[in-house]
Amino acid sequence: QVQLVESGGGLVQPGGSLRLSCSVAGTGNMFSFSRMGWYRQAPGKQRELVGAGTNGGRTVYGDSVKGRATVSRDSAKNVLALQMINMKPEDSAVYYCRGVSAGDDSEVWGQGTQVTVSS
């Protein structure tokens, strides 16, 4: 079974930067997924897109993070990374990694990592 494990969350200063990692674990690798991306959910709000894309394709970013977020892949290490700059308090949320299986289009979600932007 393939799993996604996020890491790198915590407290970030307003205006600071963030780097999260999503590692593919278990019986698979990044090519087990046709699409991978990052999503986030703040308390009382719906889960929203941060950035997601297909293998070798273009990454689409959510409107609230455009110009501040970059999703990158390291296939050799089986890691999907998220970098964000100019962090704002409204970026505080639980950040999730998501993959869509290349075999049957089923979804796999990580457990999430909390990011809090505060001084």
Description:
The protein is mostly beta strands and 119 residues long. Helices cover 0% and strands 55% of the residues. It has no helices and 11 strands. The strands form 2 sheets. Strands 2, 4, 5, 6, 9, 10 and 11 form a 7-stranded mixed sheet that branches. A hairpin with a 4-residue loop joins strand 7 (69-74) and strand 8 (79-84). The radius of gyration is 14 Å and the shape is globular. The N and C termini lie far apart (40 Å). The model has no long low-confidence stretch (mean pLDDT 95).
Secondary structure: helix percent = under 10%
| End-to-end CA span | 40 Å
Which radius of gyration do the C-alpha atoms yield? 14 Å
Provide the low-confidence segments as ranges. none
Fraction in beta strands: over 45%
Mean pLDDT, nearest integer?
A: 95
Q: Decide which structural class fits the backbone.
A: mainly beta
Q: Describe the global form.
A: globular
Run of helices and strands? EEEEEEEEEEE
Number of strands: 11
Largest sheet: 7 strands, mixed
Number of helix segments? 0
Summarize the structure.
With 119 residues, this protein is mostly beta strands. Helices cover 0% and strands 55% of the residues.
Give the arrangement of secondary structure elements.
Layout: E1 2-7, E2 10-12, E3 18-26, E4 33-41, E5 48-54, E6 59-61, E7 69-74, E8 79-84, E9 93-101, E10 107-109, E11 113-117
Parallel strand pairs: 2-11
Antiparallel strand pairs: 1-3, 3-8, 4-5, 4-9, 5-6, 7-8, 9-10, 9-11
